[in-house]
Amino acid sequence: MERNERKRQFLKWLISNYQHSNPSVNYLLQFLSTNSELMNNILFSEGAKYAPRGIYISFNSNTKLPFIYYKDLLSYTLSDQAFHDIRLNHRFSKQDFYVELDIPHLYQQLYRFDVFEDNPYIPENLQFLMDLEDSLYQISLETKLSLLNKDLNTALEKYDFDKVSYYLTQIEKLKGE
């Protein structure tokens, strides 16, 4: 079976097994699956945010941003932008679109359909960058918690129970993230 046909089969499998919370994302996937020529420039990979043209689609209900389209260092959350760029790209520029999906057992399915491709735009030091991002997030979280605890203690000393309740709620939210 030809590679483009395998990509279309994978998209049909994805559409039949997963429904995105945003109907326009489902329409985009349906559009891609019906046009075999478009598949020349659709690459299923990882690290879409590093590619000149990348699409990140999450089917998890707890994801803050279930769809992101990356284009030349900008990001868009509306799938309409990606849809129009893919259509125009097909006619004019022929750039590749790296599609990153967030579904359970993704790699198993990508390898089953033999459609996974490496993304050459992923930085070589990606693990270092991810570790750095995690460390900075942890430091930021600890600083916010420390400031909230300080404000909580001040509110307790002043018997301001409205503020105490507010600060406790904020602390619980941060610890729950």
* CATH-assigned homologous superfamily of the largest domain: Uncharacterised family UPF0302, N-terminal domain
* Overall morphology: elongated
The name of the CATH topology of the largest domain is hypothetical protein tt1805
End-to-end distance: 45 Å
Report the major sheet: 5 strands, mixed
Protein name: YpiB family protein
InterPro entries: UPF0302, UPF0302_N, UPF0302_N_sf
Organism: Ruoffia halotolerans
Could you walk me through the main structural features you see in this protein, from its secondary elements to its overall organization?
By secondary structure, the protein is of the alpha/beta class. It has two domains: 120 residues, hypothetical protein tt1805 (3-Layer(aba) Sandwich); 50 residues. It has six helices and five strands, in the order H-H-E-E-E-E-H-E-H-H-H. It has a five-stranded mixed sheet with strand order 1-5-2-3-4, with helices on one face. A hairpin with an 8-residue loop joins strand 2 and strand 3. The N and C termini lie far apart (45 Å). The mean pLDDT is 90. This is YpiB family protein. It comes from Ruoffia halotolerans.
